[in-house]
UniProtKB/TrEMBL annotation:
Gene3D superfamilies: 1.20.1050.130, Glutamyl-trna Synthetase, Domain 2, Glutamyl-tRNA Synthetase, Domain 3, HUPs, Nucleic acid-binding proteins, Ribosomal Protein L25, Chain P. Coiled coil: none annotated. Residues 710-731, 769-798 are annotated as: Disordered. Belongs to the class-I aminoacyl-tRNA synthetase family. Glutamate--tRNA ligase type 2 subfamily. It comes from the Eukaryota. It comes from Boothiomyces macroporosus. Pfam families: GST_C, tRNA-synt_1c, tRNA-synt_1c_C, tRNA-synt_1c_C2, tRNA_bind. Keywords: Aminoacyl-tRNA synthetase, ATP-binding, Cytoplasm, Ligase, Nucleotide-binding, Phosphoprotein, Protein biosynthesis, RNA-binding, tRNA-binding. This is Probable glutamate--tRNA ligase, cytoplasmic. Its main location: cytoplasm. Residues 803-906 form the TRNA-binding domain.
Length: 965
């Protein structure tokens, strides 16, 4: 009998109802029912190799397993239970006080003469309602504060709390929380690999030797290694060398080196090219069996036909003709180079990956291993499943972007009549402000915008290592992310904070001062003998040894520190003692020198300022050395580039920052790759060793704090909102000159002596105080309703011209929505925008909305962006959507009822003609978009002004305070 497993979260708000219901039904002793805890957000039931998620789905699955225990064998009871499960889902999982208050009253009335929600026994309805109330913050706050005037509901709720199953299930949850406290932000590695048996699992890491390993590849490599080792199986490193135009021995060797650095050693290293002969023979079999055909259709036509589900003119060619043309491809003839081999699957399949994908293409570029033997090469889609089977792979772990290709993978295996391979999808590792596209990274290298593939601004393994990331921290972080399928754009803070934990205990402490306007400090009143002392490199880690520190009559401070000192102030010189400021000399605002007297017995705990300092030594080994401090910004200014974004529009203007400094004499001994901490500056890695002719180069290592991982260009590239033009105001003679505060009025308000009909007060203003216009009356005139019966006008109200008016935003209606034939995350929509012909729009909504959630819907369209080609299909507008902060939920904007295609969206107080087409260089959209937000009332706004049509305001479905883009 199979085991049923149910997983609950110990991290987020638990699914109390399913947890207690499962414990109650199984009596915690059913050997075939296991309750476990992890950090997933939703409860999950694994039953008969089927995975079920979500509170109601899980409750219903439990009810199916334990029908008798919950009395669901009675159809009347079952239907009533269904009602309450839906009621909870629709009404009790909300933070809206008005909604839930009404629900509490309804439940209280319902339970007046009842002990249970349904019938005379505990059912799933009791656990569903109790669980929903248990997780409702409003209910718990009201109950705790004694504000629940619902005696029947309270009675029933307290009875549920007293159940043994409730007490024991919650006890299990508490233990799981205690166990998981130290897990931090970790993912789950406990994934149910099908048919995984110890000693028999074989995984593979298949990089293409066309670039350097980046952090995304590192995750794939580590996960494959993790599962191979966990099951005491085998890891294959396989180079997918099917595109000789991009592949080099240099890339293959670098990947091997990086894998070794990551601590990953494959049990065997192979190449897809090892199987070229076998793959070729299989292709011939496909042709002979009528499962493949040779097509000479041009690329653009083929793309359009695949999108529209139109069969190629060559699809029904004879086997003999296909074999003849395939031989032309094999020889690389002029005719063969115009052809490709395509699988014959189903051109009407809703999954466009199944619409006759390409299996072979011609390429006359010599292969870096096989040379000129082959003139055509199998595509990844065709070669991958075959080679997985040939190499003995049992479990192919792939990023979730390949999910739509999984049916295609299975089809090739089935038609080839080879051993089946299990697939498991995991999410890609992606970070904000970071490009992982090999094509885009190559562009940066070729355009000389970076120094190479190991540039510290690059997300390659070599790049982040050069920036100061340790392999230990990288491994820990990736393993902590687990093998989940949830896609997130991760911040860089956690991985760098983890890196800090690794390097802090072993980083020697040193000192460097910014050289610009450095300040000389003279010790007066006594003679200080220049001496060099050995002090610990790290006070908490004596194993790091000692460094040499020079003490002398003349010292140096940074200008930024010296500018803060005051005459007579006592300050602390770190690792020496206290001094008292006796004199400060300046040139304008710049401090040029400071005189101090020593007070080395002073209490450093009582000083507010503690400064780093340096003294020039007398010997060559003790002299201060030239030091160059390097810091970097992200290469792009946008957190996440969309499919239609051109990277050139989001380049960070300056990404490298150099600061010349003076460093302590010990820095001359640093070797490339050494990591240190500069006191009061942060962690640095030596990128270039000191020589007599050049300074030591130190690269700043982020430590996870907000300022260390923030985009330096982000604030600069987000212009302030345009200021409204105002007329010059006459000075008010009655203002108090002592200080000014912003008025709570509009600047033109003069209160009347009549406060209201309840009472009167004397005016606090003199009779001759200046009188001004009444803003409220003026506003009322502007907003006076139109006379009844007068035809509505769709044009926006009059107002001042501003940047927002340059956007042409209208209502559109989606007439058709289909998947993009060549991009897994894109839809292609046909949208009526009130013009003679509908527009084609490409949008990246596949991961967020189903086609039926878009088709035939009214949407909000920005229609004057410059048309852009997205994977071969030109998009002529943008669908505006609301998105939560981490971009895990996206909703369409909803025009008001009665809207029709072409209705203009306007913003009150702002009038002007939109530009025919926005010029990308002017960045109008990039300037305006950050101020697009939804309100608590779900209204779409720009700078607080609603999106409006003549029919009303534009809203979103449920996302509050969400960004719109």
């Amino acid at each position: 009998m199979s085991v049923t497993k149910i997983l609950f979260s110990f991290k987020t708000t638990p699914a109390y109802g399913p947890l207690v219901a499962s414990y109650y039904a199984s009596k915690a002793s059913d050997p075939n029912f296991k309750i476990e805890f992890n950090s997933s957000e939703k409860p999950v039931v694994l039953h008969h190799q089927v995975e079920v998620t979500g509170i109601n789905h899980v409750l219903r699955t439990i009810g199916t397993i334990y029908q008798k225990e919950f009395h669901l064998d009675n159809p009347i009871t079952a239907s009533q239970v269904d009602f309450w499960l839906d009621y909870c889902q629709d009404n009790l999982y909300t933070a809206d006080f008005k909604t839930v208050s009404g629900c509490f009253d309804y439940l209280d009335n319902y339970l007046t003469l009842r002990s249970f929600m349904v019938g005379y026994h505990l059912t799933l309805a009791d656990f569903a309602v109790w669980g929903a109330l248990k997780s409702n913050a409003i209910f718990n706050k009201q109950l705790k504060g004694g504000k629940m005037d619902t005696k029947n509901l309270t009675r029933w709720y307290q009875y549920m709390n007293s159940l043994e199953a409730v007490e024991k299930a919650l006890s299990l949850l508490d233990k799981a929380k205690d166990t998981g406290k130290d897990r931090g932000d970790k993912g789950n590695m406990d994934i149910p690999l099908p048919d995984a048996h110890e000693g028999q699992v074989v995984t593979r890491f298949p990089p293409e030797p066309s670039g350097y390993l980046h952090i995304g590849h590192a995750k794939a490599a580590l996960l494959n290694d993790y599962f191979a080792r966990s099951y005491k199986g085998k890891l294959i490193i396989r180079f997918d060398d099917t595109n000789p135009s991009k592949e080099k021995d240099e890339f293959e060797n670098s990947i091997k080196e990086d894998l070794q650095l990551l601590g990953i050693k494959g049990d065997v290293v192979v190449h897809t090219s090892d199987h070229f002969d076998k793959i070729y023979q299989k292709a011939l079999e496909f042709i002979k069996n009528g499962d493949a055909y040779v097509d000479n259709t041009d690329v653009d036509t083929m793309r359009n036909e695949r999108f529209d589900g139109i069969e190629s003119k060559n699809r029904n060619n004879s086997v003999k003709e296909n074999l003849r043309l395939f031989e032309e491809m094999h020889k690389g003839t002029e005719l063969g180079q115009t052809c490709c081999l395509r699988a014959k699957i189903d051109m009407q399949d809703k999954n466009k990956c199944m619409r006759d994908p390409v299996m072979y293409r011609c390429n006359l570029t010599p292969h870096h291993i096989t040379g000129t033997k082959w003139k055509m090469y199998p595509t990844y889609d065709f070669a991958c499943p075959l080679v997985d089977s040939y190499d003995g792979v049992t479990h192919a772990l792939r990023t979730i972007e390949y999910r739509d290709r999984n049916p295609q993978y299975a089809w090739f295996l089935e038609k080839a009549k080879v051993r089946k391979v299990h697939i498991w999808d995991f999410s890609r590792l992606s970070f904000i402000y970071t490009l992982l596209s090999k094509r885009k990274l190559t562009w940066f290298v070729e355009e000389n915008l970076v120094t190479g593939w190991d540039d510290p601004r690059f997300p390659t393994v070599r790049g982040i290592r050069r920036r100061g990331m340790t392999i230990d921290a990288l491994r820990q972080y990736i393993i902590s992310q687990g093998a989940s399928q949830r896609e997130l754009s991760l911040e860089w803070d956690k991985i760098w904070a983890l890196n800090k934990k690794v390097i802090d205990p072993i980083s020697p402490r040193h000192t460097a001062l910014v050289n610009d306007k450095i300040v000389k400090v003279n010790v007066v009143g006594e003679t200080v003998k220049t001496e060099i002392k050995a002090v610990p490199k790290h006070k908490k880690n004596p194993d790091l040894g000692n460094k040499l520190t020079t003490y002398a009559q003349n010292l140096y401070l940074e200008q930024v520190d010296a500018a803060t000192v005051e005459l007579g102030e006592e300050i602390t010189l770190m690792d020496w003692g206290n001094v008292i400021v006796k004199d400060i000399k300046k040139s304008g605002d710049v401090v040029t020198s400071i005189d101090v007297t020593l007070n080395l017995d002073g209490d450093f705990k009582k000083t507010k300022k503690k400064f780093t300092w340096l003294a020039q030594g007398a010997t060559a080994d003790s002299k201060l050395i030239k030091t160059t401090l390097l810091d970097y910004d992200y290469l792009i200014t946008k957190k996440k580039l969309e499919e239609d974004d051109d990277v050139k529009d989001f380049l960070t203007p300056q990404t490298e920052f150099r600061t010349e400094a003076l460093g302590d004499s010990n820095l001359r001994l640093l070797k490339k790759g050494d990591i240190i901490q500069l006191e009061r500056k942060g962690y640095y890695i030596c990128d270039k060793e000191y020589t007599a002719n050049d300074s030591v180069h130190l690269i700043s290592i982020p430590d996870g704090r907000a300022d260390s991982v923030a985009s330096k260009a982000a604030s600069a590239t987000t212009p302030a909102a345009p200021k409204a033009k105002t007329q010059k105001k006459e000075a008010n003679p009655w203002k108090i000159s002592m200080y000014e505060v912003d008025s709570i009025y509009d600047g033109s308000y003069n209160p009347s002596s009549k406060v209201g009909s309840m009472y009167e007060i004397d005016s606090i203003y003199p009779k001759d105080a200046p009188k001004t216009t009444k803003a409220k009356e003026q506003k009322a005139k502007e907003e006076k309703p139109k006379k009844e019966g007068k035809k509505e006008q769709a044009a926006e109200p009059a107002g001042e011209a501003s940047l927002i008016t340059k956007l042409d935003i209208v209502v559109g209606k989606v007439l058709k929505v289909e998947r993009h034939p060549d991009a897994d995350s894109l839809y292609v929509e046909t949208i009526d925008v009130g013009e003679p012909q509908p527009r084609t729009v490409v949008s990246g909504l596949v991961n967020f909305l189903k086609p039926e959630e878009i088709d035939q819907k009214l949407v909000v369209i920005l229609k004057n962006l410059k048309p852009v080609s997205m994977r071969g299909i030109k998009s002529f507008a943008m669908v505006l959507c609301a998105s939560n902060e981490d971009h895990t939920k996206v909703e369409l904007l909803v025009p008001p009822k009665g809207s029709k295609p072409g209705d203009k969206i306007f913003f009150k107080g702002h009038a002007g003609e939109p530009e025919p087409e926005l010029k990308p260089k002017k960045k109008v959209w990039e300037t305006v978009q950050p101020d697009f937000l939804t309100t608590d009332d779900l209204v779409a706004t720009w700078q607080g002004i609603p999106f409006e049509t003549s029919k009303g305001v534009v809203k979103t479905g449920s996302l509050k305070k969400a960004h719109i883009k």
